[in-house]
Design brief:
Low-confidence stretches: none
Number of helices: 4
Helix content: 10-25%
Strand content: 25-35%
Distance between the termini: 39 Å
Strand order of the largest sheet: 3-2-1-13-10-9-16-4-5
Largest sheet: 9 strands, mixed
Structural class: mainly beta
Oligomer: single chain
């Protein structure tokens, strides 16, 4: 299934994409796409519904983040060896873990707003993992059983805030709109192999990132099990798993986002995003 949320920001409704790519309204069945509605029992209930029995949504409504109210938005850094190299950093021996504040969540087609003092905002296409069942001290062999689905994420990053202002990466990763998630959550049963998905990002119509999840240093199962050793993963939590090379920080000369830029990005089978860059007031 492809589950999504549509409508004005803060007033999104749950939806489902049918086999013909049409948006169907789920609001008579569930109140929203949340950690509670994507449990194994919740997904099993939704799978029994015939999409044709659901009302069609007319027009082209705004698409919101595909999961509502996650407790955590966790990110993995330097998880592609060629991206680590372009960043001038060593491939980590263990996953690099940091947080994106959940207030940065935005829709896949919403504008990206640059902080007023931003000079080095950057793009990163990433595979998103959405947890479906509570995971604590789990084994790698069992990790994927805890995944409800996958999605496309743009892990926007302000590099000066991230690396030149001391402290944690979080403050370079969490500005409002720096977490476009979606357009939809593709349930895990429809993703044959999360470690074999093509991914790409175009800046102003030019391809700048072109990679595959097959080149991750640490795969999804490793990451989910690893994180569960340090804190409990809860249903609805989002994990964004790192980016392939081609970010602005790694270019020579470096190239960072400016108002008027456009980004289009996608992951095989998980849908595309598109954003315009504006300066926040």
């Amino acid at each position: 299934m492809k589950l999504l949320r549509y409508g004005a920001k803060g007033r999104e409704k749950p939806g489902l994409l049918d086999g013909e790519g049409r948006l169907r309204d789920l609001s008579a069945v569930i109140p929203d796409i949340t950690g509670g509605t994507i449990s194994p029992k919740g997904l099993a209930r939704l799978k029994k519904i015939k999409p044709g029995s659901l009302p069609l949504v007319r027009g082209t409504p705004r698409i919101g983040a595909c999961i509502a109210n996650p407790q955590k938005f966790i990110a993995i850094g330097l998880n592609y060896s060629d991206h680590a190299a372009e960043s001038g950093l060593q491939v980590p021996k263990e996953p690099v873990v940091f947080a994106k504040q959940v207030s940065c969540l935005s829709g896949p087609f919403d504008d990206v707003t640059l902080p007023p003092r931003s000079r080095k905002s950057d793009w990163e296409v990433e595979l998103g993992v959405i947890i479906g069942t509570r995971a604590k001290n789990i084994k790698k062999a069992d990790a994927l059983k805890h995944v409800a689905g996958y999605c496309t994420i743009n892990d926007l990053s302000e590099r000066e805030f991230q690396t030149e202002r001391s402290g944690q990466w979080t403050k370079g990763k969490s500005y409002d709109s720096f977490g476009p998630v979606g357009p939809w959550l593709v349930t895990a049963d429809e993703v044959r192999d999360p470690q074999n998905l093509a991914m790409w990002l175009d800046l102003n119509g030019k391809r700048v990132q072109n990679g595959s999840t097959s080149t991750m240093v640490f795969g999804v199962a490793h990451i989910v099990a690893y994180l569960s050793e340090f804190f409990t993963l809860m249903p609805g939590d989002i994990i964004t798993t790192g980016t392939p090379p081609g970010v602005g920080m790694g270019m020579k000369p470096q190239r960072f986002l400016k108002p008027g830029d456009t980004m289009r990005l996608g992951i095989e089978g998980l849908g595309e995003q598109a954003q315009k860059v504006v300066r926040d007031k």
